[in-house]
Fold each of these.
Amino acid sequence: MEDVKQIMIVLDDIDIEQLDEDKLTDILIDAFKKQGYTPTDRPVVIRKGKISSIRAIENESQEEVEIYALAQVLNKDGKVKTVITGRVV
């Protein structure tokens, strides 16, 4: 059985529905790299409330992985943030 890892990315002051595809892709690639994964898909597509599949390379092992990610956009007291949770298989 494969080892499934859980990751979480929080993008403060970012509503993924308000950004154009190229800018969002750049932000997401940087965010995933900080978690140890480099997406190989371009553009990187994540939609609010829907599970997205992202192909990536694990930085440490160079192994190809699939990340199943779900995004939520939260707006609390006028502060917006996007929370992305993902399972890496």
Amino acid sequence: MNRQAIALTDDQAVVVTQRGTAITLNLTEVAYTDFETGVHVPASSFTITNVEGIRQLRDLLNQLDLEGKKN
């Protein structure tokens, strides 16, 4: 089993686990409270557990203009 965890920010982490041909991607975010405004954001996470879902996510991310270049 291969597992890789990456801290995206102080509040977010992603874990990718590959076991044979099965791949699981899990993104987790800790709870957050803004004490100045009183807004509380609960902890959350989502998981993609199939290769086709991860491919679709990859394709969508590849379409984003992350560097501000215009087509």
Amino acid sequence: MNNLAGAYDRPGPGPGGPLYEQALAGCRRVLGDDHPDTLASVNNLAGTFRAVGDLARAVLLFEQALAGCRRCSATITRTP
């Protein structure tokens, strides 16, 4: 669904936004908030809000995606 939303994505209101919202809801339900696919969906939805000029919602979602990425990277153990 996320890829279909991307195919519809274009400047201005269009069918991409609701599909990104559905994809995000499904990812959160099945994968959890910090799964990389969920975070990508958050980021995609934020980009859609940015494209239509809803900067307040875009920034909120971009911040959520960034925070999730930071939490995920903090759990990765690196070996020298």
